[in-house]
Amino acid sequence: MNEQGKPGAVGAHYVSDAPFDPRSIEALSPDQERYYLASQWRLMWWKLKRHRLAVICAFVLLTMYASTLFSEFLAPYNLHTRKSSFIYAPPQRMHVFHDGEFVGPFVYGFDSRLNMENFQRVYTDNTNKVQKLRFFCRGDGYKFWGLFESDVHLVCPAESGTLFLLGTDRLGRDMLSRIIYGTRISLTIGLIGIIISFAMGLVIGGLAGYYGGIVDHVVQRVIEILRSFPELPLWMALSAVLPVNWSPVLVFFGITVILAMLDWTGLARAVRSKLLALREEDYCVAAQLMGAKPRRIIARHLLPGFFSHLVATATLSIPSMILGETALSFLGLGLRPPVTSWGVLLNEAQNISVVALYPWLMLPVAPVIVVILAFNFFGDGLRDAADPYK
Question: Does residue 214 sit in the same domain as residue 294?
Answer without folding.
Answer: yes
